[in-house]
Amino acid sequence: MGDAVTSPPPDPASAGSAREFIDVLDRLRIWAGRPSLRRLRHLAGRSTTPDGHPADALPPSTVSYILNGRGLPGLPRLAFVEAYVAACLAACDLSPEEIETQIARWQDAWRRIASPGDLESGTQPVKETTPSVHASEPMPARPTRARIVLFGLSGLVAGTLIATVVTLFLWPADKGIPLVRGEDPNRCDSPYVCFYDRGQTGRFRDVTDDYQSLNDSRDTPAMVNPRKDDVVWLRWEDGHSECTMPFATYRLAPRVAEIRISRDYRCPPYTGKHRAILDPAAVVPAPLPPCYVTTPQSRS
Question: What is the pTM of this model?
């Protein structure tokens, strides 16, 4: 098992023009492991339009429009930049304090590059079917939307850490499972979800509304889910069902029988006894995002 440390995100101070600013925004998403536009929308949450109507803070169409440079030569609105940066950093589990520090850097870079037109009203013409993404008046340096995102995210991160600790102390040490590494012939790559018992017994990829039988993978002791955004529901022979997180390896209690892959990216709260235990010692074969670097754990 290794200690995960973060590599520094792209620095917005390196941008000297609107085009370079957009390029650094794009590199930030790459650094975060290319979270899907759907996941960024969920992480950013909802905001309120000037006329008081609720709306997604990061509509996928707006993010695509911006990152493809279709809003140039103007800058995106500062509100968009704040929400986008917060969501990308949240996808890499940075702390709320770290995220606010990074957002302040992006705010400074935006104000340094913004043209008089950006600061006043963002006069670049856009079609009616195109999201309004050009800069208007600068917003105060207060990432309120980011704080809303971070509040919810901190609970998710805490839950993941608790699950890891529970695994270390409650799962028998002698019930080892094969570590599925990238060079292994039994590797499991997204979009598949794979099951193992001294080797791969089966893999599944279809998102379904109902459970499907595990067939030859029934009663297997391990599952690997390299999908970055989709949770996996498992159901045992006695009817017990449980949700497992994306991009993780799990040890499974006996008699698991069915699987359902869901487009949800987060599991609902669960307080019962887990039968699917997050395995912190296993290796998910999909490449880690650049924001994570695994270093060997020192031994005392």
Answer: 0.52
